[in-house]
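quick one: zinc ion bound model?
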Amino acid sequence: MKSQKLISKALALNATDLHVIPKVKSSTIQARVDHRLYTLEEIPLNQSTRLISHFKFLAGMDIGEKRKPQNGSIHHYLPTQGNIHLRLSTLPSAYNEALAIRILPQSMMNPYEQLSIFPKSLDQIGQLLKRSQGLLLFVGPTGSGKTTLLYSLLQHAQRQSKRQIITLEDPIEKRMDHFLQIEINEPAGVTYLDGFKSILRHDPDVIMIGEIRDEATAHLAIRAALTGHLVLSTLHAKDTTGCLYRLLEFGLKFEDLKQTLLGVVSQQLCELVCPYCGTECTIPCLVRRTNRRMGIYEVLVGETLGEVMEEVQLKKDHKANFPKLNDYIVRAEAMGFITTQPSSDRIGWNYGEA
Ligand SMILES: [Zn+2]
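yep, here:
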C-alpha cells in the first residue's frame, strides 16, 4: 500500500491515528476512529518495511536507524483535504519497527451552526461576535469540543468582518490561515502574561486566550475586554453558572464583569446514533457517515445572564429559567439522535485533540 493512499483512506474515515504493527510474517495496519481501532489490512512484512521506510524518508527521519525510537513530522497538502499535519513515531518491536501516525488536518473547520444538534442554541453566540468589545466564555470538560467551537467562531468572525484576530494558545491545536496564533512557551519565556502584553501591541480586534487559568489571566482578559477588544476564552467550570462563581473567585470586580461579560456557553460532545447500523460501526459504515459526533450547548446570554449574575452576586437561589445542558440531552435522546448520556472522556476534536 502506498503512503499517500493510506493517508487518503484514513482521512476518508476521519481517523485520528494510523498504526503499522509488525508481526512474525506480516504487518497489520490499523486506524483509530472515534476511540476504536479498526484493522484496515494485513500486508507482507517486506511491504510494510518499504512503507515505513518511505514514511521515515518523508518525515526526515534516519531510514538506516531501526533500533532506536524516532519522531518526525510531515506537512502535506491534499487537493481534497487541504493541509494536513502528520506526527510520526517509530518504535523498535520484537519483530520489526512499528509506526504510529497521528493525523492532524489543519484547515477543515465546520461552520459553528453545524457543530450542534440544536443549531439554534448557538445563534445568539454567533450574533454576539458582531460586538466590538466584551467577553465570551466557554466552559466544559477536556474533550467537550470547546476549542473546536472557538476556532469555528473565530473563523466566522473573520469572514463576517475583516478584523485582526490574535490567539494565545498553549499549545496551538490547529493552525489556521488568517489568524495570528501565538504559542505559550514558558521555558522560552513566553508566558500568558508576556504573550498578552505583546499581542496588545499588535492592535488586535478579537483576542482568543486559550484558557483563563488563574487570577492573572482573568484580570488580563477583563482588562482587554474593557479596552475595546472582543475576548474569547475557556475556563474550567461545571456549567454556565459555575463559570460566574469561578470568575468572582478570581477576584474580578462584579461591576467589571457586568460591564464586559456578553455570554457563557457550556458544552458536551455526544456520539450520534448511526443511521445505518446502530452504534458499532464497521468500516464501510464509517465512510458513509459524515457526522458522528455533535455538541449540545447551554447558552447564557442577554437578560437571563443578567438575572443569573445578580443571583450569584447576592448569593440567592437560582430561579432564572433557561434551557440547561441536561434539558437538551433529554430532548436529543427523545428525538433519537443519541442513546446514552455523553461521557466527558469522549474526545472533542474531529481529529482527536481537546
Ligand atoms: Zn454504523
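The mean pLDDT is 88.
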